Amino acid sequence: MTTEILWIEGNQRRAASFVVGLRAKGYQVETAANGKAALKRAEDYLPNLAVVHAPSLRTNGSRICDSLREHMNGNPILLIADPRNQPEPDVEANQVLVLPFTLRKLVNRIRDLLPNKNEPTLKAGPIVLYPNSKVVQIRHGEPQRLNPHMMGLLRLLMEQPGKVLNRSDLFREV
Description:
By secondary structure, the protein is of the alpha/beta class. About 30% of the residues lie in helices and about 20% in strands. The protein has six helices and nine strands; from the N terminus they run E-H-E-H-E-H-E-E-H-E-E-E-E-H-H.
């Protein structure tokens, strides 16, 4: 199964596009020329990840990310920003990548944002736990690494939802 990316990029002649490189790496990339087209495309396409190339859109990308968040079903948004036009601090992007950077750095950030499809997961409401990689992600949030004790405790609680657990039992298990 290939990773599907929605790439939002305005004037391609002015921007260094990474679309060709991502396609060569095996990603399926659909493009949109502006925020309005991206919202429509996100509803129809349901991508695994959206990338907003803000400098090519002549914006800082904050409003596009905020609008796009509702249509992404909890999937991550990566914002590419210009160092001279930084996004708002509370932007709805999971990660902000500031130009200039290489295709390799972009691919690494994409891999960090997307869970390993073969890894088992535990889900409870908006929380998704990846026990093998010791990563937790809460809807709309950035994946966070956990130390072994925190991961063990969260896994134990998620495996027994709704059950009251004794403190001494928790310590013994973890």
